[in-house]
Amino acid sequence: MNNPLARVAVVTGAGGGLGSAIAQELGADGFQVVLVDRDRAAAEAVAGSIGDKAVLQPCVLSADVTDAESVQALVNEITRRYGRLDALVNSAGVERVSALEQAPEADWDLTMDVNVKGPMLLCRAAVPLWRAQGSGSVVNISSRAWIGGSANSSYSASKAALVGLTKSMAVELGPLGVRANAVAPSFVRTPFNEQRSDVTDMAGMIERYEAFTPLRRLVDPVDVANAVTFLASERARNITGEVLHVCAGSQLPPIV
Ligand SMILES: NC(=O)c1ccc[n+]([C@@H]2O[C@H](COP(=O)([O-])OP(=O)(O)OC[C@H]3O[C@@H](n4cnc5c(N)ncnc54)[C@H](O)[C@@H]3O)[C@@H](O)[C@H]2O)c1
């Protein structure tokens, strides 16, 4: 049932490995969570599996974040159902791996559309709601790749652009009471990585990754979800325009 006092959180890409963990933690923190994915069945499966941990029953809506009409219809539906939007988590993302020399333009366009244009479209559509309520919080899921070190130009460029978008939004929307931050995770074991065609030896890759990571371990989806839930909450009320690396230290230059 709709609780008019509940804070509302929208998580895009909620059918995915990180999006599902983020939705679960936000739900456990008391948010009315709206799980959004272009793959509705995936989001519904997540809603079913996290429902008992959430304070309020999660809701599922489908949308394609690259399509302005689909995004506007989504925000209209959230406005109709809840009349507010307290936390927007842009987690929908894609990575297309290719060497720069062979990089297909279509992969570049898709990556930029989902990873950068999508968050912009969501935020643009949400501004009237935020202006009316005088508050709001955006958490954009960037990646450690934004600082480089990933031989995948379209993905790195998209995640760096997302940081630029986040900082710009923090300045522009701050006077409305809206905060904007980014979370930049390192490699996390999710379907996002399991499906990578460029990695033939995943176990070996993980071993090498752990070896150069200061804390000598991989990040788990819940680590990312905890950082997002903190930034989305009032506990972070004076934190905006930041990038929170959840990387077990792998964002730092190595000792040489
Ligand atoms: N998994 C990692 O190692 C890792 C590390 C750093 C950053 N990230 C970032 O975290 C985010 C989530 O990653 P994940 O591991 O959960 O990925 P995932 O592939 O498991 O999930 C991504 C979800 O986004 C949805 N999606 C894709 N395009 C969409 C669109 N146009 N409209 C709506 N939904 C769409 C997919 O259907 C999928 O459910 C991504 O932005 C990714 O770049 C992931």
Oligomeric state of the chains in view: single chain
Classified in CATH, the superfamily is NAD(P)-binding Rossmann-like Domain
Give a list of the ligands: nicotinamide-adenine-dinucleotide
Number of domains: 1
What coarse outline follows from CA principal-axis ratios? globular
How many DSSP helices? 8
CATH fold-level assignment: Rossmann fold
Radius of gyration: 18 Å
How would you describe this structure to a colleague?
The chain is of the alpha/beta class and 256 residues long. It has one domain (8-190, 220-244): 3-Layer(aba) Sandwich (Rossmann fold). Helices cover 45% and strands 14% of the residues. It is built from eight helices and seven strands, in the order βαβαβαβαβαβαααβ. The chain has helices at residues 17-28, 40-50, 68-81, 105-133, 153-173, 191-194, 202-212, 221-232, and strands spanning 8-12, 32-37, 59-62, 87-90, 136-141, 178-185, 243-246. The protein has a seven-stranded parallel sheet, with helices on both faces. α4 packs parallel to α5 (153-173). The longest helix is centred in the middle third of the chain and has 29 residues, at 105-133. The mean pLDDT is 95. Bound molecules: nicotinamide-adenine-dinucleotide. Residues 12-13, 15-19, 37-39, 42, 64-66, 91-95, 114, 141, 143, 185, 187-188, 190-193 line the site of nicotinamide-adenine-dinucleotide.
